[in-house]
Amino acid sequence: MYTHSSSSSSLHFLVLVLISSLVSLAQPTLADPYERTPTAQPPSKVAAKVFPPQTYSCNDPTTNCFQRNIACPQECPMLKPSSARDKACFIDCNSVSCEAICKNRVPDCTGIGSACYDPRFVGGDGVMFYFHGKTNQTFSLVSDTKFQVNARFIGRRPQGRNRDNTWIQALGFMFNTQTFTLAAKKVAQWDDLVDQLVFTYNNEPLTIEEGHLSTWVASDGQLTVERTSTRNRVLVKLPGITEFYVNVVPVTKEDDRIHNYQIPSDDCFAHLEVQFKFLDLSESVEGVLGQTYRPDFINPVKRGVSMPVMGGEDKFKTSYLLSSDCRRCIFSSENSDDETNSLVLDPTMTVDCTSRTSNGYGVVCRR
Fold this sequence. Notes:
single chain, 367 residues, alpha+beta, 7-stranded antiparallel sheet, 4 helices
């Protein structure tokens, strides 16, 4: 009896175990609520796979890099990055090295063709100089056969000084029979979240929607204005002639403290920082900045001083922002299409400026 009972119990146990196993197999498997899911790839890695570095082909036979494909580096893979904070890829088919470089899409105030601060210029010859002008007057920066750029100066004369401190408040651009202006508004207290640029085209107000890469193109395609940030920064292009970056900034309290500008509380003197790149200049180009690109120009400013000053207010003063009536102005809308001797901006006239002040943006780096 005892042996039979033990065998029966063992058999009963095995049957229960078998039934329990079958029931478990029939039920769905439940996920572990504490199991960690795989981490998603960072956006930068995904973007790198979807958007490889861009490549540009140099197809102009007059350039140094003709028939070369220049690739953007990994550090700045895009010509127009989606974020205004990211550096862009710059490709110059006339460069000596035929390599792309990375930099922000803003004026480089130490580079050739720049005009910033209490106006400090860097000429086409690579020489830095100041041109003070006068408050509430306009001067020709560039006057050539095909276009002209004027600047309106704002400023004030601090107590005890013998000259005005001035800044560029507006630019007036003339080409063919068209006109374009951009200006910084008068601002009491600066706010980075407010756009302080105003535009006109052919004397009519022009609205360019806020937003990085927001772009306006003239109906004839001769002029393009692109925002390089949500607000207060633009790139202006006249295809085949010139392009320039513009940034509007205030005179900061730190600037005021260092230079003793004696800025009043109701005006932060919002002004423009600008850097030009010229693509087609004549040998007779004039203007405060333009003259420094002439092959025969001998810069008269004193070297080795802290503030080398370029004179010529009487030569380059115009009667208003869109006027070409200065004594040295050569632009006229009637003859802007005439053929003239041009500066051929080819490798024989340029040097590699990347080791100096221009980061490759200037077209001429003579000394």
